[in-house]
């Protein structure tokens, strides 16, 4: 239970509240008036609800799934060292060492100063999920962003359709 409390900072709570606000605002102001008029209204409500649930599921996975940290006292496999460790920046096949963790680290692992640990395949530390985006949660983060993008474009087209229908009724 302590891990859940640690992840739930003000930003994460604000994102959950924003999701709820946007969902209910869109449903009651945009989709609900359309429901009584046609079957497309019901289909749009179903699609918007499904996208919201999928986006929330992906967001929850981003927040609570660890990004993937380097195990303590990690040592590379010496036999495969020449195949697996090709560090082009340094021009050699040199092991990388994190001075803060005092541990070896594999390629593409970076130390996050916010989480205070080395993260595998670290992309960035995201304040909106209060977590690093890395090896274990990158897919969820990407799906969350794509789902939000789809919801936004879907919503834009819905509002345009309703504005067009409203303009036709008033002319």
Distance between the termini: 59 Å
Q: What is the helix tally? A: 5
Question: Largest beta sheet, briefly?
Answer: 2 strands, antiparallel
Helix content: 40-55%
The neighbouring-strand order within the major sheet is 1-2
Q: Which band does the percent of strand residues land in?
A: 5-15%
Q: Helix/strand/pairing class, anyone?
A: mainly alpha
Whole-number average pLDDT? 80
Inertia-based shape: elongated
Which short descriptors sum up this protein?
171 residues; mainly alpha; two-stranded antiparallel sheet; two-stranded antiparallel ribbon; 5 helices; 6 strands; elongated
Give the helices and strands, then pairings.
Layout: H1 2-7, H2 10-35, H3 39-64, H4 81-84, E1 96-98, E2 103-105, E3 110-112, E4 117-119, E5 124-126, E6 131-133, H5 138-169
Antiparallel strand pairs: 1-2, 3-4, 5-6
Helix pairs in contact: 2-3, 2-5, 3-5
Describe the protein's architecture and organization:
A hairpin with a 4-residue loop joins strand 3 and strand 4 (117-119). By secondary structure, this protein is mainly alpha-helical. The protein contains five helices and six strands. It has helices at residues 2-7, 10-35, 39-64, 81-84, 138-169, and strands at residues 96-98, 103-105, 110-112, 117-119, 124-126, 131-133. Helices cover 55% and strands 11% of the residues. The strands form three sheets. It has a two-stranded antiparallel ribbon with strand order 1-2. It has a two-stranded antiparallel ribbon with strand order 3-4. The chain has a two-stranded antiparallel ribbon with strand order 5-6. It starts with a helix and ends with a helix. The radius of gyration is 23 Å and the shape is elongated. It has a domain at 2-70 and 126-169.
């Amino acid at each position: 239970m302590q891990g859940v409390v640690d992840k739930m900072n003000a930003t994460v709570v604000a994102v959950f509240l924003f999701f709820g606000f946007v969902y209910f605002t869109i449903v009651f102001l945009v989709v609900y008036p359309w429901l009584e008029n046609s079957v497309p209204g019901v289909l749009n409500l179903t699609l918007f609800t499904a996208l919201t649930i999928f986006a929330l599921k992906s967001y929850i996975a981003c927040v609570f799934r660890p990004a993937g940290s380097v195990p303590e006292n990690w040592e590379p496999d010496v036999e495969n060292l020449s195949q697996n460790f090709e560090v082009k920046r340094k021009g050699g096949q040199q092991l990388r060492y994190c001075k803060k963790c005092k541990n070896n680290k594999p390629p593409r692992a970076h130390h996050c100063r916010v989480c205070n640990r080395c993260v595998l395949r670290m992309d960035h530390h995201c304040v909106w999920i209060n977590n690093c985006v890395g090896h274990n949660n990158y897919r969820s983060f990407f799906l969350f962003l794509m789902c939000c993008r789809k919801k936004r474009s879907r919503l834009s087209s819905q509002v345009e359709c309703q504005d067009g229908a409203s303009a036709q009724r008033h002319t």
